[in-house]
Design goal:
alpha+beta; two-stranded antiparallel ribbon; two-stranded antiparallel sheet; 3 helices; about 15% helix; elongated; binds iron/sulfur cluster
Amino acid sequence: MPKSSKHNKLKGWKELPPGAVVQEPGSSQDYQTGNWNPDVEVQWIPETCINCNLCWTVCPDEAIIVDEQGNMKGVNQDFCKKCGLCVDICPTKSKSLKMVKKQKEDI
Ligand code: SF4
Ligand code: SF4
């Protein structure tokens, strides 16, 4: 049975562009993902931080700021997409990283 002309126009799976795939590793520096969720921000509480750097290890956007000596220095809000991984992994009892709602005047 002959295929319809409509059927013949469909692309095969090899011709389709890849979806939801990061094709260029290291591209996070090019995209300021901090504006993905402008209503919240990750707040660092230095008084309780034990400087374990676990947050730096899990951050997918290099948004955790660490100095040359390996000391935690804060969160770069321009690149933090508020995924919450650092908050989840922070081992201090009171959590030295918190996801907080931004004040209206900050938005
Ligand atoms: S929430 Fe934490 S882990 Fe996620 S992007 Fe922001 S700093 Fe990185
Ligand atoms: S995971 Fe928590 S305790 Fe460890 S460096 Fe980050 S903020 Fe500090």
